[in-house]
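Subject: Interface between my chains keeps coming out wrong

I've been trying for a while to get a sensible model of this assembly. When I model each chain on its own everything looks fine, but I need the whole thing in one frame so I can look at the contacts. Pasting all components below, labels as-is. Any help appreciated, I'm running out of ideas.
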Amino acid sequence: MVVVLSEELASELDRKLKEWFLELADILGWRVDKVLDSYRLAQRSVIIDVRDDGREINGVRLRVPSESRDTYYYVSVGPYGAKCTCEASVIRGEICKHIVAGLITWNMISVIKYGKWLELRGIEWLGNRKKNNNDEKP
Ligand SMILES: [Zn+2]
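Reply #2:
Try treating it as a single job with all components included. I did that and got this:
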């Protein structure tokens, strides 16, 4: 798919994408450059499956290259959860850079196809760890 954007639209998208990245970093408690690492991973990923119900994108599956090893991880993200085959995700249950690459890809497809930006505050699993920690306090 080739998408040609006017300069005006491209700069509007650029501005919105920066805001979206800042919000994402804030929710995750990450530095913005870590989110940008995920963005670079997203650009090098292969989309395996897109869940499209005709009105919105309900998630994606993709193959994301490892930053440190000569291997790939498989990521699935959607409204109700996310998983990745890397150690950080499988063993430690972390939201890893690969899952965030999946989230960024999901958002890009949603914006291109339906003009809808993912509402990050509406994705419960993104902020779940903090909430769970609070719940565990006696
Ligand atoms: Zn991962």
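Reply #3:
Confirming on my end. Residues 130-138 have pLDDT under 50 and may be disordered.
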